[in-house]
Amino acid sequence: MKGSFCNIHHFTPSLKTFETLKEMERLTRSANFLSHLLTAVPIFQIFSGRGNYAGLNTLSSSDNITTYDWNNLAQAFSSIDVIKRRQLETLAMRAVDETSSKDREFWKCVYNAL
């Protein structure tokens, strides 16, 4: 059950568990990179001008700040965490299906913690 936590004693992860953990780490790094990239795009658009990226333009910058679609940006940021969590849940559930014994218990705990 989601939100419930568990305690596994004397657990030695299998190779499959280590591989899945590496994949989860890669996915998390990629999502964090995307988040940083999304942060840079609006700043570039605002201060460079939407149609003119050749240089900074103070007048267009102030206009861009007031007309920038901040709601869409907020939705984009919040969706990264939702997508990342879903992907991590998918990896954990697949590991539940592909492992046995204490590894399976471990992945059920991971899934429930997500």
Give the tags.
mainly alpha, elongated
In brief, what are we looking at here?
This protein has about 110 residues and is mainly α.
Overview of this structure, please?
The structure is a single chain. The longest helix has 34 residues. Helix 1 crosses helix 2, helix 1 packs antiparallel against helix 3 and helix 3 runs antiparallel to helix 4. With 114 residues, the chain is an all-alpha fold. 75% of the residues lie in helices and 0% in strands. It is elongated, with a radius of gyration of 21 Å. It has one domain. The chain has 4 helices and no strands.
Enumerate the spans where pLDDT stays under 50 for 5 or more consecutive residues. Answer: 53-61
Task: State Rg.
Answer: 21 Å
User: What is the arithmetic mean of pLDDT?
Assistant: 79
The percentage of residues in β strands lies in: under 5%
DSSP helical segment count: 4
The H-and-E topology, N to C, reads as: HHHH
What is the strand tally? 0
Number of domains: 1
The chain-level structural class is mainly alpha
Biggest sheet record: none
Outline type: elongated
* N/C terminus separation: 11 Å
What level of helicity do the residues show?
Answer: over 70%
**Quaternary form:** single chain
Secondary structure blueprint with pairings:
Elements: H1 15-48, H2 58-67, H3 70-98, H4 101-113
Helix pairs in contact: 1-2, 1-3, 3-4
